[in-house]
Design goal:
The chain has 199 residues and is α/β, with parallel strands linked by helices. Helices cover 38% and strands 18% of the residues. It has one domain: HUPs (Rossmann fold).
Length: 199
């Protein structure tokens, strides 16, 4: 079984996340896509992140009607910091029969050599799906100089250009601006019922 890994803080999960996930599922011929909710990402230690319970509830609401989407608690049920290489290894132990395809954006791929144990991360993945936006330049060569194995593992995903970001949505909510059509209905209801992002 080919299984995608789509990690993030999802604070909140928005329609762009879902579109990118569906494109990855289709283009890479995945049988399942696991959303890995990151509890305390090492690269976001300097900003306030919503409680994991709220983000988990929103993510569940966002994907509940999609039979090939699921949520993994691999980074929720263990102490941080959480590094991608450890996440992939733990998921492979949990699902030894699957081929794990790690999904990332073009910006993350450009920074791959700065990740924790990048060569070990690449070795742990069956494939790496890089979500490529229009006019994005993915420089495989610069990464391959240090990690030659990356050349045979990367698969490019053509993704639509959507100028939607969680940070932008949080700001809209805090400022009282419209935001409902950036999110699925269930996520909007949780934000309103719990009073999230109000200040």
């Amino acid at each position: 079984m080919r299984t995608g890994i789509f990690g993030g803080t999802f604070d909140p999960p928005h329609l762009s996340h879902l579109i990118l996930a569906e494109e990855a599922w289709y283009q890479l011929q995945l049988e399942r896509l696991l959303f890995v909710l990151t509890q305390d990402p090492p690269h976001k230690q300097d900003r306030l992140i919503s409680p994991v319970e709220d983000r988990l509830a929103m993510l569940q609401a966002a994907i509940q009607d999609n039979p090939h989407f699921a949520i993994s608690r691999v980074e929720i049920d263990r102490p941080g910091p959480h590094y991608s290489v450890d996440t992939v290894r733990l998921l492979q132990e949990e699902f030894p029969e699957v081929q794990l395809v790690y999904l990332m954006g073009g910006d993350s791929f450009r920074d791959l050599l700065e990740w924790h144990k990048p060569a070990e991360f690449v070795a742990a993945c069956h494939q790496i799906g890089v979500m490529r936006r229009p006019q994005d330049r993915i420089d495989l060569g610069s990464v391959a100089k240090d990690i030659p194995e990356v050349l045979e593992k990367v698969r490019l995903i053509q993704a639509p250009l959507l100028e939607v970001a969680s940070k932008q949505i949080r700001r809209r909510i805090a400022e009282g601006r419209p935001y409902r059509y950036y999110l699925s209905t269930g996520v909007v209801e949780i934000i309103q019922n719990r009073g999230l992002y109000q200040d």
